[in-house]
Design goal:
With 87 residues, the chain is α/β, with parallel strands linked by helices. It has helices at 3-17, 32-48, 65-79; strands spanning 23-27, 51-57, 83-86. β2 (51-57), α3 and β3 (83-86) form a beta-alpha-beta unit. It is elongated.
Length: 87
């Protein structure tokens, strides 16, 4: 199941949580679950007028966390979503 189909299935829940035109900041770890959430919200955003942005905070708890943040920045950029990152 792709993001568009998942967004359609979740539409009643998402639409009940987020009013039309709402700004939504998606906290992304870069893992599969938060990246999927970003894709699902984007799939529904045009229909609802949501303004989507993503954010990531590198706590520097694991080796390679900086590279994870850079990889996520690339994914978010390819989606055309504003991105904020911190350390």
């Amino acid at each position: 199941m792709g993001p568009a189909e998942l967004a359609t299935r979740l539409a009643p829940v998402l639409d009940g949580l987020l009013p039309p035109g709402e700004g939504v900041l998606v906290a992304c770890s870069g893992g599969a679950d938060s990246t999927c959430l970003l894709h699902v919200l984007l799939a529904r955003a045009a229909l609802r007028g949501w303004r989507i942005a993503a954010a990531h905070f590198d706590h520097r708890l694991r080796d390679g966390s900086g590279a994870e943040q850079e990889r996520l920045a690339g994914i978010v950029a390819s989606l055309g979503v504003p991105f904020e990152a911190g350390r």
